[in-house]
UniProtKB/TrEMBL annotation:
Residues 28-155 form the Nudix hydrolase domain. This is NUDIX hydrolase. It comes from Dactylosporangium darangshiense. Pfam families: NUDIX (PF00293). Its cofactor is Mg(2+).
Amino acid sequence: MSDFSADFELDGEPEREFHPGVAKRMAHKTVAAGALIRDPDGRFLFVVPNYKPFLDIPGGIVEPGEPPSAACAREVGEEIGLDRPVGRLLLVDWTPGRGPWSDQVQFVFDGGVLEPAAVIRPAADELTGFRWATLEEARADLRASVFRRLSLASTAIATGRLLHAEYGHLLSGA
């Protein structure tokens, strides 16, 4: 994680609440970060979580005080045992809360191309495995919103643009 101590010093003392308790009552969103990792044939690396019925990309929840890029690298290491550099940010997507999950801001980073010799070790406490597939091949095993999100992330790779979406739908003007 980055050391922000110099930035804290430049900003000065933390703000004091004029009305104690206001900050605690404000909404808190979940933030998640994942890596779009590809193989030389252009297929995506999907993980098979043991806690939900759909495929996903390697990644997870950003811890308090942790930058999304650091969380992405940490989660990739924890979930699949790879120490990979986190590439550029491809997409920021907001998803509404549904079921047990709160609404989230999702960051998708470029995980680069993984060489065939790389060893993937799925974390047994979170995953039942992994799968290489194109988006179309994986479509039936992805939530519709995740398919839309990853389609946009793929577009971001191809165009070199950073995209902004809500529930997997590109915002106009983005």
